[in-house]
Design goal:
twelve-stranded mixed sheet, elongated, 49% helix
């Protein structure tokens, strides 16, 4: 019997019991959808993560801090401890900038010394929980721009960039372009609390009071809006040196005794604390590990964006294995359904098998015929499951696109079903059908023709 005849016969036999065959195919469809959708979510998440880190340059970024225990995420916002023996200074920046394969180096500083502020034409907003992040816009730090432009060296002390979340809070949701060029004004926090660090860890004495008294409000023109869920303002380091001027007062001497005259001085917090970190832009991804090693030999901490990507992708891989296992269980149950269907088909067609054997059909022909029928079940279930999975991907993207927009992420349609995965799922369900149908096919082939002909 030709293969085409076997395929035609197999299809005709399956359509004899439409309900039973349909239910078996449905079970395979559920398993195929489970495997396809779950693995697609994992691969899409991994791809999205890599794309975002590549787009912003984080895949080649190394963050230098004074604390070697900080992870990459912690290092992004962790200020230095203020310990003068570990303080990051301009000299430190110059040393790490000379490391081989470092393309750009930018010192950073994070400041929360503002009590309130407003944007021209926008709603009033409290800024006490807003981070002001200062850096040198030399290419070491790049943002995903949603409106306007990112900071560049020409900004000097004139321009700032805000995150979408902050822009939304200011009343510019859905019209980010309208905030470009507006003036944002910050009011210094009058009471910053007592200085808690001893003199060798911050340049001041225990009990020193820090405040914004006598410090003028600062106004800047907004140059752009960038993607981020944080309520942050990004400024140049020149601007940050202006913003971090505070008033330090103390009426105690070194021994903690009251002085007749209060000591008042204006100081810059960057000079007192040192930079928070240094962002390094490595020339190529393959050189990141070497730069990390070189930084650590200087007695500094180094956290690489590539390590963060690897860590998160490993997490996704574990999740994918778990989800894939659940989908595999569904396919295993479907395989049992295939076995049941084919066993019932063998029992119902015992006499037919006897007639075929009497007419000269070999055991191999009978075995192949039933195997083809089982493969048909697996193929149809896999094909329908994959098609429905593409539909699920469209629905998920419709929901996630709104969430991504609200989160300040420009990427869209991040969930996709890889063609290779779809083909593998169809191939896998077909093979599962063939394997599951192997035992019933062998049983049918081994039937005694004489006994089969007598079967009613």
């Amino acid at each position: 019997m030709k293969l085409s005849d076997q395929l035609r016969t197999g299809w005709r036999n399956l359509t004899r019991q439409k309900l039973r065959s349909g239910l078996t195919v449905f079970a395979i469809v559920i398993g195929a959808i489970a495997v396809t959708v779950m693995l697609s979510l994992v691969t899409s998440a991994q791809g999205f993560l890599t794309d975002q880190f590549t787009k912003t340059g984080e895949i080649k970024r190394v963050i230098v801090t004074t604390d070697p225990t900080l992870s990459y995420r912690e290092a992004q916002w962790g200020n230095s401890s203020g310990d003068t023996s570990k303080k990051i200074t301009d000299e430190t920046v110059a040393r790490v900038e000379k490391i081989t394969n470092v393309a750009h180096a930018s010192p950073t500083f994070v400041w929360q010394g503002w009590s309130s502020g407003r944007v021209e034409g926008g709603a009033d907003t409290a800024l006490k929980n807003t981070n002001t992040f200062g850096y040198v816009p030399n290419g070491a730090i790049r943002h995903e721009v949603l409106a306007g432009r990112d900071l560049d060296p020409s900004d000097g002390t004139t321009g700032v960039v805000v995150t979408q979340t902050l822009a939304d809070d200011l009343g510019f949701s859905g019209r980010l372009d309208s905030i470009i060029g507006k003036q944002i004004t910050f009011q210094p926090r009058q009471d910053m609390g007592p200085q808690q660090k001893p003199s060798n860890e911050g340049g001041g004495k225990s009990g020193d009071q820090l405040s914004g008294a006598g410090i003028e409000p600062a106004s800047f023109a907004i140059s752009g809006v960038v993607a981020s869920e944080d309520r942050s303002v990004f400024v140049t380091m020149d601007e940050m040196r202006t913003l971090t001027m505070v008033t330090r007062t103390n009426s105690m001497d070194q021994n903690g005794q009251q002085q007749p005259q209060t000591n008042v001085q204006i100081e810059n917090q960057i000079a007192q604390r040192g930079y928070a970190s240094i962002y390094l832009d490595v020339d190529e991804k393959k050189n990141v590990d070497g730069v990390v090693t070189s930084v650590r030999t200087l007695g500094l901490g180094a956290a690489a964006g590539k390590e963060e990507v690897t860590r998160q992708q490993s997490t996704f891989t574990i999740i994918g294995a778990v989800l894939g296992g659940l989908g595999g269980i569904a396919l295993f149950v479907a395989a049992i359904g295939v076995i049941n269907t084919m066993v019932m088909a063998t029992l119902e067609r015992t006499r037919e098998i006897g007639i075929m054997r009497a007419l000269g059909a070999t055991k191999k022909t009978i075995r192949r015929l039933f195997t083809v029928e089982a493969a048909f079940l697996g193929f149809l279930g896999g094909l329908i499951g994959v098609i429905l999975s593409f539909g699920f991907a469209v629905l998920l993207n419709a929901v996630m696109n709104d969430q991504l927009k609200d989160s300040g992420v420009s990427a869209r349609n991040v969930v996709s079903v890889p063609i290779v995965l779809a083909l593998l799922v169809i191939l896998g369900t077909t093979l599962i059908g063939m394997v599951a149908g192997g035992l019933p096919a062998r049983r049918a082939a081994n039937l005694d023709p004489v006994q089969a002909l007598r079967h009613e």
